[in-house]
Structure formats: structure tokens, C-alpha cells
Design goal:
ABC transporter involved in vitamin B12 uptake, BtuC; mainly alpha; 14 helices
Length: about 325
């Protein structure tokens, strides 16, 4: 029943993303119906697909990463995964001058996998909250500094200007082929994660209990790292870095699944898609007179939640 409601919510948010703002579509349809349909199919449809795809990737991968680290603060953005993916894409595009979507995705995947591997090395598989946050902050800062350095060393003097909107996270002016390029690996990675739901659920009992049941935890951890790198890397290559969805969605999803971390993967994917579709709608209908990067919107909305979560965890530990 919960999954059905979430699916209906996703469908409603997706249709709203196609329809709003309604006035611009109806006015254009009255003048030129062909152009209005082009607006819908070539601009709004890819944007809505990317929002749903990227949100689902962040939600599902966030749930899996939080499970293997046994920490609710382990999300793709706070662990440095998205920053690493952005660094890989910048190196591929501006230093190596590979501009094809496949090359950018390879760079993003390599960067994301490197960031997650470094996090496992620094913080360990079951890191305490403070250790995880410090390691993730260090990796994000390092990746951000190297990204800036790569742009400064790029042959093009306009590299900073060209990369600004993408680095802030943007779904604007993306094509249908780009949305499909992010959609296919994301669906594949989520499908593989769903085949390991029981193994992820068993981690709630502890690693020793999960191993006694017969699950190879080391292999599962490496699999989650690889799948997260592929899904998040493919989305970052197209849309840039977007934060906090991978933190918020799994927390809500676990409340719907009775705290079972593996069973929360699919609900987290659906919730993540809804959240990013909603954030994109806010960006599009906000009367600001200019385009606001969606990564900025998710950060503004997600940062207070993150601060509340840290405060709540500290309060629980102090009781």
C-alpha cells in the first residue's frame, strides 16, 4: 500500500513538472500548437525525467550507503561522492578534453568511486558520526579544491564560466538523449540493489550476524560502492552536483519500512524522485526573475534538516 501511494505521488509530481507553469504552455499553444508540443517534449519532458532519475539515484544509493556505513549521515554528498564525481567530470572535460557523454560519465564514475574508496579507507566501514563527517568534509574539500585547480589549469579561459551552472546543479536545457543516458545506468544500479535487499536488511543485526547467515559483507560493501559510483556518476555527468536528497530520502523511507535499511531502498528512490521534482518545480515557478540552480535550492532546503538531524542525534546520545 505504501509503495502504491509513493508511486502515485511520483506520477503526480511528474505530471505537474510537465504541466507547470501552465500559463506559458497554454499561451504558446494558442499561437502555435506545434511549438507548444516541442516545448513539452524537448524541454520539459527531459527535465522532468532527469529530476526523477537523479532523485531516485540519490535516494536509493543514499539508503544503501547509509546501510553499509551504519550511519544515517552517510549520503552521496556528505561522503564526498558527488564532489568526487564532479571532479572526475571536470578533469575529463576540461583537462583531457573529452566531451562525449560517455567520457564524462567515465570520469564521473571514476571520481565517485575514488571518493567512496577514500572514505572507506579513512573512516572505516562502521565509522562513528564525527569520524564520518570529518572524513566526508575532508574529501569534499579536497575534491572541491582540485576541481577549482583543474578549471584554473584548463586551456579555455572561459572554463569557470562554462562550468559554473553545471557545478551548481542544473536540469535546464538538457536533451532527451542526455536524460536517457542518465536513466539507463540508474535503473540498472537500482535493480541490482533491489536484488540485495535481504543482505542489506541483515546488516541491521550487525556484520557478524549477517556473515553468520551467509552473506559476504565485504563483497556487498564493494558492490554498493561500485553501484553508487555508477548511478551518481552518470547523473552528475549530465546535471552536476546536487546535494541533500540522498540524506533526506532514506531517513523518511526507513520510517515507512519499520527501520529495515534494505527494504528502504525502493521507497527511498521514489521519495528522492519526488523531492527533486518538487525542488525543480519550486525553482521554475519562483518569481525571482532569473534561473536558480537546483543544487542551490536543495541545499537551502536540506541544510536546516541536516542541522536538525545532527542536533537530534546528539540529543539522543546525551540522554
Amino acid at each position: 500500500m505504501t509503495r502504491l501511494l509513493l508511486t502515485m505521488l511520483v506520477a503526480g509530481a511528474f505530471l505537474l513538472s510537465l504541466a507547470l507553469p501552465l500559463a506559458s504552455f497554454t499561451d504558446l499553444y494558442a499561437r502555435d500548437s506545434g511549438l507548444a508540443w516541442s516545448l513539452l517534449l524537448e524541454l520539459r519532458l527531459p527535465r522532468a525525467m532527469l529530476a526523477l532519475t537523479y532523485g531516485a539515484a540519490l535516494g536509493a544509493c543514499g539508503a544503501a550507503v547509509q546501510t553499509i556505513f551504519a550511519n544515517p549521515l552517510a549520503s552521496p554528498d556528505l561522503t564526498g561522492t558527488t564532489s568526487g564525481a564532479a571532479l572526475g567530470a571536470v578533469i575529463a572535460a576540461y583537462l583531457l578534453e573529452f566531451t562525449s557523454p560517455f567520457a564524462l560519465s567515465l570520469g564521473s564514475v571514476a571520481g565517485a568511486m575514488g571518493a567512496l574508496g577514500l572514505l572507506l579507507l579513512l573512516a572505516g566501514p562502521r565509522a562513528e558520526t564525527s569520524t564520518l563527517l570529518l572524513a566526508g568534509l575532508a574529501i569534499s574539500a579536497l575534491a572541491g579544491a582540485l576541481t577549482t585547480l583543474a578549471l584554473a589549469l584548463a586551456p579555455s579561459p572561459f572554463a569557470f564560466y562554462d562550468a559554473y551552472e553545471w557545478l551548481m546543479g542544473s536540469l535546464v536545457d538538457r536533451s532527451l538523449s542526455q536524460s536517457l543516458f542518465a536513466l539507463v545506468p540508474t535503473l540498472a544500479c537500482i535493480a541490482v540493489l533491489l536484488t540485495h535487499v535481504r543482505a542489506l536488511d541483515s546488516l541491521a543485526l550487525g556484520e557478524q550476524s549477517a556473515q553468520s547467515i551467509g552473506y559476504d559483507i565485504r563483497r556487498l560493501r564493494l558492490l554498493v560502492v561500485a553501484l553508487t559510483a555508477v548511478a551518481v556518476g552518470a547523473c552528475v555527468a549530465v546535471c552536476g552536483a546536487i546535494g541533500f536528497i540522498g540524506l533526506v530520502a532514506p531517513i523518511f523511507a526507513r520510517r515507512l519500512t519499520g527501520g529495515r535499511p534494505g527494504s528502504a531502498v525502493l521507497p527511498a528512490a521514489l521519495i528522492g524522485g519526488v523531492l527533486l521534482l518538487a525542488a525543480d518545480l519550486v525553482v521554475r515557478v519562483a518569481p525571482l526573475g532569473r534561473t536558480l540552480p537546483i543544487g542551490v535550492a536543495t541545499a537551502v532546503l536540506g541544510a536546516p534538516f541536516f542541522l536538525w538531524l545532527v542536533t537530534h542525534m546528539r540529543w539522543k546520545l546525551g540522554r
